[in-house]
Q: What sequence folds into this?
């Protein structure tokens, strides 16, 4: 009994102190609301989630998915690139496919667009299929049309048999053939910069300028000083990276070793050059993604970082699937 009474008195004293500190129960509630995160404010914050961080078209066992990046602006998803597995990765990131609204393709290599059509389809089969806008270089309209033709029988069967909305009416495709403004709404301005990824000439980086944060995604590119200008003073630069010492081990496994080596060296960015771009741009945070090779477990984070650090002294993150920055 004495113990219970002491606990009661201690609790009453604590409550009284709290009321004095915060000026009463109502003031205490207001004070707590200023300390605890506001759910609405949290939703409005611009978030960056790496969905897939492995470069190249092969399906490996490294635990890395093919290239895709998610930006949430005012709680609206913007998906950049649709490598194999993007639908599953969105779900793993806690993003229902009913929320898919904007899709951006950097260029037409399979590791960046292989699941573009399936993502459209998977979003369509949700209980509330969304209207979707897709942006990308020339060829995106044909890619969309070809996928819809490929699934024409299934789509039309489900429209008649299950009463589903016509998927073809939910998709708006926006193609472009030069750098510049891609789209703009009340939350964000999206611009593009043509980068160097031969033999593909229509390969682009994207910059998302939201009210609270600016994020640049390089896409696939060799060293490109113009990208540094494009990313000037961005909060985050998400840049592809190639670890040269491991390239020889990678190509030894290939029957097309000579041609593959030529392609990789001409079309991708070694870690040292990634550091140069980040330093020239003056970005706050550099995130390494589209890692080449992305399936070599012997490469440590320190090895990815070493070359970059020679030129960039800011914050560097070695990207991993489902990591939020």
A:
């Amino acid at each position: 009994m004495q113990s219970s009474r002491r606990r009661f008195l201690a609790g009453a004293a604590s409550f009284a102190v709290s009321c004095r500190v915060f000026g009463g129960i109502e003031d205490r509630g207001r004070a707590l609301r200023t300390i605890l995160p506001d759910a609405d404010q949290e939703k409005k914050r611009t978030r960056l989630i790496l969905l897939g961080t492995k470069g190249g078209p092969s399906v490996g066992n490294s635990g890395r998915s093919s290239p895709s990046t998610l930006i949430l602006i005012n709680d609206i998803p913007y998906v950049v690139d649709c490598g194999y597995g993007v639908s599953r990765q969105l779900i793993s990131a806690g993003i229902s496919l009913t929320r898919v609204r904007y899709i951006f393709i950097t260029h037409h290599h399979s590791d960046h667009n292989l699941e573009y059509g399936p993502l459209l389809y998977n979003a369509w089969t949700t209980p509330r299929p969304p209207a979707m806008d897709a942006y990308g270089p020339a060829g995106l309209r044909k890619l969309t049309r070809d996928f819809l033709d490929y699934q024409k029988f299934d789509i039309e069967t489900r429209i008649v048999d299950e009463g589903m909305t016509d998927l073809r009416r939910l998709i708006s495709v926006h193609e472009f053939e030069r750098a510049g403004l891609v789209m703009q709404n009340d939350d964000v301005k999206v611009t593009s910069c043509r980068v160097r990824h031969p033999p593909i000439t229509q390969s682009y980086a994207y910059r998302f300028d939201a009210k609270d944060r600016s994020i640049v995604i390089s896409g696939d590119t060799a060293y490109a000083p113009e990208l540094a200008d494009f990313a000037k003073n961005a909060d985050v630069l998400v840049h592809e990276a190639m670890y040269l010492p491991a390239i020889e081990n990678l190509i030894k496994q290939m029957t097309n070793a000579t041609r593959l080596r030529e392609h990789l060296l001409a079309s991708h960015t070694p870690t040292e050059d990634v550091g140069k771009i980040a330093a020239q741009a003056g970005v706050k945070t550099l995130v390494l993604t589209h890692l080449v090779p992305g399936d070599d477990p012997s490469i440590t984070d320190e090895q990815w970082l070493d070359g970059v650090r020679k030129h960039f002294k800011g914050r560097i993150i070695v990207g991993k699937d489902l990591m939020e920055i």
In short: The two ends are 53 Å apart (CA to CA). Residues 1-36 form one domain. The first helix runs from residue 2 to 22. The chain has two domains: 1-36, 39-318.
